[in-house]
Amino acid sequence: MAEYIESLRLLAERFGRLEGVGKKTxxxxxxxxxxxxxxxxxxxxxxxxxxxxxxHLCPVCQNLTDREICPICSDEERDHGVICVVTDARTVMxxxxxxxxxxxxxxxxxxxxxxxGITPDKLKIRELLSRVGEGEVEEVIVATNxxxxxxxxAMYLSKLLKPLGVRVTRLAYGVPVGADLExxxxxxxxxxxxxxxxx
Amino acid sequence: MAEYIESLRLLAERFGRLEGVGKKTxxxxxxxxxxxxxxxxxxxxxxxxxxxxxxHLCPVCQNLTDREICPICSDEERDHGVICVVTDARTVMxxxxxxxxxxxxxxxxxxxxxxxGITPDKLKIRELLSRVGEGEVEEVIVATNxxxxxxxxAMYLSKLLKPLGVRVTRLAYGVPVGADLExxxxxxxxxxxxxxxxx
Lengths: 199, 199
Prior knowledge:
The structure is a homodimer. The first copy, chain A, is of the alpha/beta class.
């Protein structure tokens, strides 16, 4: 029947382009949209455009934000001498849930992975070095995932950062090896933060 | 962090309203939208509005369509003397995949379920009776799910339809009892169609 309803097929196809959404799920979601009130469908469409148009990278930490400078970077109460380097914006979200980290962040937007064509110049490493180069930073916590690529990226960063006279640490292995930080529970993340060690 | 990015939180909240989408999945999909090209995000928003605005119920069979009369009802090649009654539009899609049924459909938009406040007047039963009342219909295949509510609805319909002098049949129990027709494989649906029996 979707073959007959072009607009339903097109909508399912759009849902299917989102990360982790299969064909059946996409069609189910498209049907779901038909059951929305008209104003809810409008609000949904508007929310997509708003998010896509308003959200950009913070020029300081490269995290996603809808303000000029993100609220974490513009927060005077936070310790701007400690930078926690993370792979993506979702990890910032996970770290913030701990409510124990009072420093700031730097989002790499990926991990070094030559096999997948992700070389260091494709990540926000230049921006990190420039922040540390300004001299106010005392410590960089490299909170990349405890995977091969995460460890390799951490090693790469520590080699670049240490000559700048900054302390480089890594989250303690409270985080289960091989896991994704996004799904770590808050206590595990807190313990990992407490037990951080010099690289 | 989503706490800081209002437009991201709002978008995730919209995804979360769709059937079967949990909080984590909704947030993951919202992040996915941020990675879309601007024109893809626009096309996505437009697809939502198009689907919601263009698709309505076919006045004959009550199935979803974006045309005045749905392509199945307006197909002269099909046998308008045999009506297959289904619960929802998704079941029509599943039945059409069999490519063996050459009759037409009638979509009830639910099953009788007094516990959930779904009384017969909330379904498209009046429209079905009026179609059958026109006298052209020879057989009504009641293809509701083989569940308690599906069976009850089938019994209710057969009591109303039989006095109109029409043959009322039910899909054979080739369909596994307790299952959802939407997920039945095509061969099972085909066998069930072949072995249909009088109620």
